[in-house]
Amino acid sequence: MKYLMWLLNAAIFFVLFAFALNNQSAITVHLFFGAQWQVPLVLALFIALLLGVCLGVFVMLPLWLRARKSRAAATKTVAQASESPNTALDTSVASSPTL
């Protein structure tokens, strides 16, 4: 399985490398106030990908933190329940007849 994952990673790397080699032509990115930026196409695509990932993480962060907080509260409740013995359950078990 380890070799299969290594092979898959190598294939993905070579596909992305070939994509980068085929998209080296320069493009002009027009910014605000008439500013222009000459950049290779592959670099512009990579920057757009990074901005999209950062935006996605930023949008999902409150949901992740809320889920983490509720998971911690649930874990604390379970830990407290396991620490305190249930006396009603203990007495019913002790009074049950044995065969």
UniProtKB/TrEMBL annotation:
Biased segments, Polar residues type: 80-99
Region annotation Disordered: where it falls in the sequence: 77-99
Domain Lipopolysaccharide assembly protein A: residue ranges: 22-82
Keyword Signal belongs to the record: no
Transmembrane segments: 42-65
Signal peptide feature range: none
Keywords, comma-separated and alphabetical: Cell membrane, Membrane, Transmembrane, Transmembrane helix
GO cellular component, one term: plasma membrane
Protein name from the UniProt record: Lipopolysaccharide assembly protein A domain-containing protein
Species the sequence originates in: Hydrogenophaga crassostreae
